[in-house]
């Protein structure tokens, strides 16, 4: 009898502060819920934690069943700190002593619990709690545009980026305002499970999956994805999952349930590019990752990314980039 492989589990601990901004929790964690349904290789196991079992939220709805802050986090844990609303719906009163004590409890816990091997993710103003705990000192980070001054005050040595959806600096990941938490979690899902799963989750949420927050350019993995046509998405998912395969219009048409002629027409209408252009963009993107992350020579990179030769790779590359493939290699460190 064949033994079924157990999924790789990523324990996720969502810190729920007082006056929690509910979308900071619901948006990113809905990404993880759908990712669990899309694939079986990785499972995100979510626990909601905080200093209080019940807290009020930004929209006046109470959140209950919050577990206590754990004494120790497991290895590979992902800690997500949600933000808070200054003025929840129908409640403009100042912060009371109990709420401030709860915030202080979160800060003290972060100082104790976050260690190497634990990734810390802040959503929106959750970065302020991370900063107060010293988690962002000397790091690149971001937060909601309305919290930039507070972040600079709490983390004076941090390198704050004010024009990014999110920023990753080692084991610290911070996002901008509110819905940017969805972008950050889609990035985390793509990193853990692959681009195809993240794209499927983005489509389910009916959001336009944007690139890494530290890069203003649109990722080639995401270009041509701002549509909701299921036939084209099936073809694109197949290519993204295995760009090196010998994809023909006919094979993709058969897989996606359309005639070759109809697939070509739909591809141009929905994505603004041909099927062949899309396949080559995926292969060039894969080649770029290999050039940046390996020491393979150009011929090996070309073969492993689906091109027949380095010449074919360069030809496809030059249609998309002004600089040559060699420019994608990391620069040697000074003095090396």
Entry keywords:
single chain; 336 residues; alpha/beta; Rossmann fold; Arc Repressor Mutant, subunit A; 2 domains; six-stranded mixed sheet; two-stranded parallel sheet; elongated; DNA-binding transcription factor activity; Probable transcriptional regulator protein, AraC family; DJ-1/PfpI; sequence-specific DNA binding; Homeodomain-like_sf
Summarize, please.
This protein is α/β, with parallel strands linked by helices and 336 residues long. Helices cover 42% and strands 11% of the residues.
How is the main sheet built? Answer: 6 strands, mixed
CATH topology of the largest domain: Rossmann fold
CATH architecture annotation name of the largest domain: 3-Layer(aba) Sandwich
**Helical residue percent band:** 40-55%
Calculate the terminal CA-CA distance, rounded to whole Å.
54 Å
What count of domains describes the coordinates?
A: 2
Number of DSSP strand runs: 8
Cα-atom Rg, whole angstroms?
22 Å
pLDDT < 50 runs, ≥5 residues: 214-218
Q: Kindly report the spatial arrangement of strands forming the biggest sheet.
A: 2-1-3-4-8-7
CATH class of the largest domain: Alpha Beta
Pfam family, one: HTH_18
Protein name: Probable transcriptional regulator protein, AraC family
Keywords: Plasmid, Transcription, Transcription regulation
Domain HTH araC/xylS-type: 233-331
């Amino acid at each position: 009898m064949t033994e079924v492989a157990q999924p790789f589990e990523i324990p996720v601990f969502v810190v729920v502060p007082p006056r929690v901004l509910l979308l900071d929790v619901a948006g990113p964690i809905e990404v993880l819920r759908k990712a669990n349904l899309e694939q079986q290789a990785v499972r995100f196991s979510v626990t909601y934690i905080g200093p209080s079992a019940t807290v009020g939220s930004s929209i006046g709805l109470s959140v209950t069943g919050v577990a206590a802050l754990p004494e120790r986090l497991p290895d590979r844990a992902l800690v997500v700190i949600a933000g808070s609303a200054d003025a929840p719906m129908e409640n403009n009163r100042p912060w009371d002593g109990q709420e401030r004590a709860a915030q202080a409890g979160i800060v003290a816990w972060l100082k104790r619990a976050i260690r190497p091997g634990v990734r810390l993710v802040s959503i929106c103003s959750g970065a302020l709690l991370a900063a107060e705990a010293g988690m962002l000192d000397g790091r690149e980070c971001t937060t909601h545009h309305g919290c930039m001054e507070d972040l600079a005050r709490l983390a004076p040595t941090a390198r704050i980026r004010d024009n990014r959806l999110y920023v990753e600096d080692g084991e610290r990941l911070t996002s901008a305002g509110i819905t940017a938490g969805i972008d950050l979690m889609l990035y985390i899902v793509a990193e853990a499970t692959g681009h195809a799963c993240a794209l499927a989750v983005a489509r389910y949420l009916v959001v336009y999956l944007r690139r890494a927050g530290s890069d203003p350019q649109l990722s080639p993995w995401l270009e041509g994805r701002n549509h909701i046509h299921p036939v084209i998405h099936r073809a694109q998912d197949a290519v993204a999952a295995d760009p090196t395969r010998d994809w023909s219009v006919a094979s993709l048409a058969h897989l996606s349930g359309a005639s070759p002629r109809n697939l070509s027409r739909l591809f141009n209408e929905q994505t603004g590019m041909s099927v062949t252009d899309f396949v080559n963009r995926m292969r060039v993107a894969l080649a770029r990752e290999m050039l940046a992350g390996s020491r393979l020579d150009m011929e090996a990179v070309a073969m492993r990314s689906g091109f027949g030769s380095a010449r074919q790779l360069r030809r496809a590359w030059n249609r998309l980039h002004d600089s040559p493939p060699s420019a994608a290699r990391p620069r040697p460190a000074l003095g090396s």
